[in-house]
Write a structure and sequence with these properties.
2 strands; globular
Length: about 220
């Protein structure tokens, strides 16, 4: 079997299993602190548990980096492995929550995405879209490694990636103030999110297409 396919299979198995564990932890937390319904306007998790939860999130990232590091030798393949695992893990996190507790219940339901260094908030559909994009992009690096630089992108392209990430990060923090003040998040800046995603998509498409033309 092709080495790339084997790598994708094993990275996927690990990420799906890891998503199961994380969703199970979230189910336990919700049953303990939100037995009736999950309400973003009331943050019931005590500080000592919140500290442990933040540590768990950090540990999750360490695990993904470590897995990607041992799964390949080149930086671009390791980085692609991290992005791939992150995407599969985050996607299946929501799939497992749907299986376990039938959540989310509707398409634009809000969720707490991350807690480092503060709460990131968005409709759950947003991280799912990003996860699918990450899976596709990382798979392209696996399949067409010759079309990417040693470090995947050149400096100019990395600056575009950084701009895209900052725009999307801003959308995650857009409603953090309301959440901290005990209010339910309202408006999500979809236009900014679309701009950030399109920046990243255009960059990957440009890399694949331009590199392909050079070889013709």
């Amino acid at each position: 079997m092709n080495r790339t396919i084997v790598r994708i299979i094993y990275l996927s198995l690990f990420s799906v299993a890891m998503a199961y564990l994380e969703s199970a932890v979230v189910v336990y937390l919700r049953f303990i602190y939100y037995p009736e319904t999950f309400d973003l306007s009331v943050f019931k998790i005590p500080p000592e548990i919140l500290t442990i939860e933040i540590g768990r999130e950090a540990a999750t990232l360490v695990m993904l980096v470590a897995l990607a590091w041992i799964a390949a030798r080149e930086f671009k393949t390791r980085f692609a492995g991290f992005i791939f695992c992150f995407g599969v893990w985050d996607l299946f996190y929501y799939i497992w929550l749907k299986v376990f507790i039938n959540w989310p219940e509707y398409w634009l339901e809000w969720d707490i995405l991350f807690l480092i260094p503060t709460a990131w908030l968005a409709p759950w559909l947003v991280p799912v879209i990003i996860s699918i994009f990450m899976i596709i992009c990382s798979t392209l690096v696996f399949i067409f490694p010759e079309r990417f630089e040693k470090y995947i992108f050149n400096l100019y392209e990395w600056l575009i990636v950084l701009a895209s990430m900052l725009i999307i990060l801003y959308t995650f923090l857009y409603q953090t103030g309301r959440f901290i003040n005990g209010q339910i998040p309202e408006t999500y800046p979809w236009l900014l999110f679309i701009i950030g995603v399109l920046l990243a998509i255009s960059l990957v498409v440009r890399r694949i297409v331009s590199s392909g033309r050079k070889k013709i």
